[in-house]
Amino acid sequence: MVDKIFIVIILLLSLSNLNGNNPGSHKMQIELTPDRLLSVCSEPDFLKEPVMKKCSKCKKEKPLTEFYNHKECRKGKNSQCKKCVKEIRATYIKKNKNKILKDARAYYYKNREKYIEYTKKYNSIHKEKVGLFFKKSHKKYLHKVVARDKTKRLIKSGELLKQNCLFCSEKIVESHHSDYNNTYKII
Fold this sequence. Notes:
Elements lengths: L1 H17 L15 H8 L10 E3 L6 E3 L3 E3 L7 E5 H14 L1 H14 L1 H14 L1 H14 L1 H16 L30
């Protein structure tokens, strides 16, 4: 903005010289209209942001809307287009699926209280939406719901004992059924 004001001031000074305000100057009259002033004050083409950008992966020229915003990158846009970024993420997830799941599970157990608190807060705000979801899933997975409830009752009554995890020996264990008709058979 300051640069534009500076350019306008210089322009006005040079125009006043041309209009003959200084002794010994040429007597040339130039009409200074708002349109002429705006045309002079507008940014030159080399200062304007480019509308297109070349992807560093697929090497195609694409509009800036096809690039994710990225503060550290040049012009505030990622160097790879959205399509290429999605492909890179998909291949990474495919190759590292077990690591991602393990890290997510570890993060969940580390921040379990936060998740529980967030879920309670969300459920209290969106009661109708959550209620519809649970009604639909309850009908769809009724056999799993029955097995889970029966397992909870068996643990509560003492007929079924919770054991430590076979792999990490932690007490936080989930009950998984290979056959939902046989509630006692838990993995």
